[in-house]
Structures are given as C-alpha cells and as structure tokens.
Amino acid sequence: MNYTQTLEFLYASLTSFQQKGAEAYKPGLERITAFCRHLGNPQRNFFTVHVAGTNGKGSVSHILASVLQQAGYRTGLYTSPHLHDFRERIRIDGEMIPKQKVVNFVDKHRDCMEELKLSFFEMTTALAFDYFAQSDVEVAVIETGLGGRLDATNILLPLVSVVTNVGLEHTDLLGDTVAEIAAEKAGIAKKSIPLILGEADEAYNAVFEQKAAALKTRVIYAERDFTCMAQENRGTFQRFDILRRRDGGRFQIDLDLIGSYQAHNLLTACAAADYLHEETPLTISRRAFLEGTRNAARNTNLQGRWQRLAEEPLTICDTGHNAHGLRYVAEQLAATPHERLFCVVGFVREKNLADILPLLPAEATYLFTQAPTERAVPAPELAETAARYGLRGEVLPEVKQALDRARELAGPYDLIFVGGSNFIVAEVL
Fold it and tell me: What is the pLDDT of residues 231-247, one digit of tens each?
C-alpha cells in the first residue's frame, strides 16, 4: 500500500473519533497494552510527560515540547486531532513522521491490529510510541485523547503528569458533573509521581487531592507556585512578567502564541518545566526555557490558537470548541478592538449548544456554516437553534463560502472570527 491507501485502510477499518464521534470511543487499556507488548513495549524506551485537561492541553504540550527541544533533547510530541495531515499528530523536533514510516508500520502490524480490534486512536498511539523508540527520542510529551483514566496513552509511566483544567465536556462518556470528569482526568496520576494542576478550582481540587493521597504523591498547583504579574500583547507574540513564588524570582517571558487565555497555559508549562528541571534527570536552563517559549509555535508548527489569518479586516481563528474554551474566546473577542464583529461558526453534534451559544456575543453578525464531516450540525439547524439565544445572521453551507461572505460584509476596522470546531478551523487554514 502507498500512503493514501494506508490512510484509507485506517479510516475504513479502525474506528476514528475524529470522524465518527462518541461511537468510536473504546475505553479500556487491554487492547493498547496487548498491542504494545506485541511491539516490545516501545513506550518504555524514553522519558515522557503526560498531559490531560479539558482545554489548553494542546498548547501546554507544544510549549513543553519546544522547551525540551530547545534544551537539546530529541523530543517527541504526540497530540490530536490533526487539522490537515494525519502526520501532524506525531512529531520529532517539530518534524512530522514520514509517510513511509506510517506505511511500513501498518504493513508490518496490520494483522495484529485487526485481531485486537484496535480503535484508530489506539493504533495511532502505538505508532507514535514505536516511532519515537525507533528514532532514539529522549523525551516525549504525550497528550491524552479523551479523558485520561481509560485513554490509550495511560499505559505510560511518566516523569510527571499534568492536568491543565477541568470543565464539562463529553458528558455522555466522562460523566455528568465536573467532579466526575475530574476523576477521569485524575486517572492519569501514578504512584509517587506528582501531578501538576494548571487551573485550580474548588469544584474539583478535592478530587485531585484524594487521588494523590491514595497514590502517595502530591498535587502541584501551577498558579500557586507561579503568578503572572503583567501580560502585554506585542502583535505576533505576548510578553509576560512571571513571578516564581518560592524564591521571588522574576522572569520576562515571550510566547509566540496569542490569546489572553495563554497565560494559564504558560503558568502550567512553567510549573512543569520547573519540576522537570528540579526533580528529574532532565536539565532545562533558563535560556532554553525562554527560547522555547519564544519559539513554541514555530518549533512545533502549532496552528489554530488565536491565529491571525489576515489584517484589515483582522481575521482570527481559534480551535476552542467547548463551553470552557469558548468562554475564553468570547472574552478575547470583547478585548480585541473592532467596530463590527462577524463570526463564522459551525459545531459538531456532540457539543451541548445550550451551554455554548449563550457565551457568544449577541451583537455579532453570524455566518452559520458546517464542515464536510458527518458529525457537523447542519448549518440551517444551527441557525435555528442560535436564534433562540438571540444570535442572528446568514446560512452558508460551505466554510469557504461563509468566510468569503464575512470578508464581503466586513470593513477594514471590523473583526472576523472563525471557529466553533477543529473542523471549521481546518477548512480555513
């Protein structure tokens, strides 16, 4: 098989959450454990940092990978979903896995994958582990797919576990309350290995404390150990004045990711890098950390986080796709100078629009659209639902058509926002 045929096989034979949604979710570690045993347990051949969370886990993972790369380590990065190319999920020092590596892996292990009835995500996770081991990766940052406790990545024994935050998401799979979802994410904690919690909240702190106590470890609260004293948008990057509380150290940190919500992600990355440097075999100098954050998106080819697509009118896209993330997006939109606001939005069916739509600015003009996936809410249905929350606009069935219409309507001092789902952002990038 060539690369295209290999992908066709994977999508046709193995269930993909990105394509099918909840019906593709296959919880449990039995299949991935058996398959990795078949591969020789490649995940044991390098250090790992394990990252979970409702929002921000992608940004935190990319920042940490950039910092580790800048520190001189051969660094693997495993994230999901992808925007354009399946290979975005698996990178070493910012470079995607070669197509031939994907083809060879599937050719070699296809029978075992089918025998074990692996999900698409389980296969991809194992591919990443195997590729990292074969490529002499020294440390890998591994992002969970969904939840944590039963996620395929949870066969790892990491140097440190990280949970960015917890909000209501995938309630049909993870639980109906924040505390129940927190318990699923806390499931990545391991005995005697600290867990870093990016954003503390009285709604779920006790869940993590109880889990840590049971495992004889501790919770490190990122925003108690590090504080953002000032934050300034410099156009193509942000500048942060960060205080390290234990010794009063002050750091001026540049980050090439825009969006005020990145302050939370940066503090989480600060706490993780600090722990790795102070209490693990890894060494991360101040210079490596500062250069790694300054070039986080560039080093890892991260896209879709408050990303500027055009000027005059300013056009922004963001992959925030649940209530927790879109609340930050709405705050950022309100803080961005503009005359009129045009929003090109589409969602997938699993999202609770009753939680999401009230967060969006009522004064905006909406271009309701849908991405080319069977999971998409049809644009007319979305417009009808949005109208109940006072959101008005036009219906355009294709994303490009919707963006073109927004540009036609907008003046040079207006603002165009594109988002609602990863699929919508992928269509415009």
Answer: 999 888 999 999 999 99
CA dist., res. 48 & res. 43, Å (int): 8
Report pLDDT digits (tens) over 124-147.
999 999 999 999 999 999 999 988
Whose structure tokens read 């520190």? Answer: 71
Domains and CATH numbers, the chain: 3-300 (3.40.1190.10), 307-428 (3.90.190.20)
Report the C-alpha gap between 216 and 413 in whole angstroms. 56
Please, are residues 237 and 278 in contact by the beta-carbon 8 Å criterion?
no
**361-382: per-residue pLDDT in tens?**
999 999 999 999 988 999 999 9
Enumerate residues 6+ apart whose C-beta is below 8 A from 108: none
Q: Measuring CA to CA, which residue among 206, 191, 253 is closest to residue 226?
A: 253
Are 43 and 129 within 8 A, CB to CB? yes
Which tokens belong to 392?
């008005």
Which pTM does this prediction carry?
Answer: 0.91
